[in-house]
Amino acid sequence: MTELLVIDGIRAGYGEVEILRKVDLCVNKGELVALLGSNGAGKTTLNSVMSGLVRAWSGRIMFDGQDMTNIHYRQVVQSGLIQVPEGRKVFPNLNVRENLELGAFTRARTRRASNLDKVFDTFPRLRERQTQLAGTMSGGEQQMLAIGRGMMAEPKLLILDEPSLGLSPLLVEEMFTLIAKLRREGLAILLVEQNVGQSLEIADRAYVMENGSIRFSGTPTELLASDSLRQAYLGV
User: Fold this and answer.
1) Which domains does the chain possess?
2) So which residues are the signal peptide here (predicted)?
3) Which residue, 34, 3, 54, is CA-closest to 214?
4) Rounded (10°) CA dihedral 67, 162, 216, 41
């Protein structure tokens, strides 16, 4: 398979505190890769480094054949590496359509109308609620809006940061079904999650991060065959 994102030996942190300890990770084109780990494992810091918000101390990030290490976050977005942040981060005082249109501000602005139609086809509920203020929507609807906003930028790779956070079990199931559908349509996805069980059901491969390092990696079948992984993360 063709490599899309390659993270090679990334070290990073805040002040003198090292958070990431030589992290290696790869996502191929058209692949759904899960990055799993508990709170404090370093997942958010890695997302911030990939997005140009935190500088790497050492190592390299390659995306679609280009060196993306420590470039400006605007260039990261322009390259097609798009992140849907934890907690959704919609603009509550703007309506659904306005939130979506902002997703195309830096990238794909000329194709905003056609991309809106694609998002509405994926999320019919958003089409019905175009004029509703984002802040009045349910958590599940806001998550759909956040993902739709990311899709407006025509991502080559979509990073989904804790998309199931705060959702009811029924909405979590719906969200994972949607993510699997996006992958079947050919979108490369890096799914950053604490929900190990459901992530492994839809992922092609997975990495498990602990204390700033990758502790396990492999296919879901390989990871589930590990007694230590099952005991530590699945409780079985």
Assistant:
1) 30-54+74-234 (3.40.50.300)
2) none
3) 34
4) 90
Backbone torsions φ then ψ of 225, nearest 5 degrees: -80, -10
Angle at 117 between CA 149 and CA 142, to 5 degrees: 35
CB atoms within 10 A of CB 6: 17
Length of the chain: 236
Q: Which mean pLDDT values do the consecutive 10-residue runs of the chain (236 residues) have?
A: 93 95 96 91 93 95 95 91 86 92 79 87 90 90 91 93 84 89 93 89 93 92 79 59
Phi and psi of 73, rounded to 5°? Answer: -60, -30
d(CA 51, CA 224): 30
Burial of 127 (0-12, 13-18, 19+ CB in 10 A): middle
Nearby residues of 90 by Cβ (< 8 Å), 6 or more positions away: 99, 134, 135, 137, 142, 145, 146, 149
Question: What b-and-e string marks burial along 63-82, b requiring 16 or more CB atoms within 10 Å of the CB?
Answer: bbeeebbeeeeeebbebbbb
Closest of 72, 70, 126, 71 to residue 103, by C-alpha: 126
The H or E element that residue 104 is part of is none
Structure tokens at 31: 């692949």
